[in-house]
Amino acid sequence: MSPILGLDFGGTKLAAGLVDSTDGAIVRSARRATPVGGAEAGIAAMLDLARTLLDPLSIRPLAGVGVSFGGPVEADGRTVRRSMHVGGWEALPLADRLEGALGISAKVANDGDAAALAEHRFGAGRGVRHMLYLTVSTGIGGGVIVDGRLYRGERAWAGEIGHMTLRPDGPPCPCGRNGCLESLASGLSVARAARERLGLEPSSTLAALPADQITARDVAAAAVQGDPLARAVWDEAMGWLGLGIAAAANLLNPGRVVLGGGMTDAGALLFDPVRRIVAARALDPALEVVPAALGGEVGILGGAALMFD
Ligand SMILES: [Zn+2]
Q1: Residue 96 CB: number of other CB atoms within 10 A?
Q2: How far is CA 253 from the centre of its chain?
Q3: How many angstroms does the Cα of residue 250 sit away from the middle of ligand 1?
Q4: What separation in Å is there between the alpha carbon of 111 and the centre of ligand 1?
């Protein structure tokens, strides 16, 4: 079978991989820093990476190219609305451009949607028909799988669980609103909450760090050591995360909720409280909350999984 080219265009890195279209194995991959010179530089870099992967001695035709893109994509699955990370990508017909340059069919999805597809096809979501995926990282993204397929919604705004309002008077969110799940439980919001409380609890072990450099990872580490401030900040964030997942689960009744992203490196510190709250709030007693399985390859595999969708 011909391999699929999976592209992962993120905030810091651009990665490409040749993915075996039968079992999803990554045959070969390459990466570089995300080009900042707008869409033309970005597309040129994508094509460069693709060429480095295609061995001229054993060229097999590609079955297609799929892109996991760090920014919203139109419901057509072809046009980028903008990048969340670099300028110059507004209303860019990315699939058309790749099809023109490579002569194969192309599809595009935002990174949350692509990761959901990848985990469902190749990772922790295998075997369920309906799945909810969340990336819990500096921000919170997500994707919804219904009947084995990506559910984008009428205008492709579905799955934005990070912007579910949980506390209308809550902290500001990067989306311009207040009290979204992302503003209460993302890595950036955990770090911000810890910084804000340090003034009230200067005895915290976190006070030994430069305040502007405290990360969610530092808060998690201090919480494990029993630091009361870190514990309180972490537990509060996990409370909101569990609440958001339970609310989404009561709407969608997924067979499984898959959590990926850097915050899930905290392991039981994240999953134990989240599972407890989900068990208390979700109506389906059989709902599972499990860690993602694909790690740093999820973007390449997500791009490739688009070609199966
Ligand atoms: Zn928001």
Answers
A1: 12
A2: 20
A3: 20
A4: 17
Largest CA distance in the chain: 65
Q: pTM of the predicted model, to two decimals?
A: 0.95
Q: Which two tokens stand for residue 111?
A: 């990174």
Span 148-195, pLDDT tens digits = 999 999 999 999 999 999 999 999 999 999 999 999 999 999 999 999
Measured distance CA(112)–CA(115) in Å, rounded: 5
Cα 141 to ligand 1 centre (Å): 10
Percent of the chain past pLDDT 90, that is, above it, reads 90
For residue 156, how far is its CA from the centre of ligand 1 (angstroms)? 16
**What's the N-to-C CA distance of the chain in angstroms?**
17
| DSSP at 34 | P
Please report which confidence band the pLDDT of residue 236 belongs to, taking 50, 70 and 90 as the band edges.
Answer: very high
C-beta of residue 66 within 8 angstroms of C-beta of residue 307: yes
Distance 133 CA to ligand 1 centre (A): 17
CA of 135 to the centre of ligand 1 (A): 14
Token readout for 223 is 């919480």
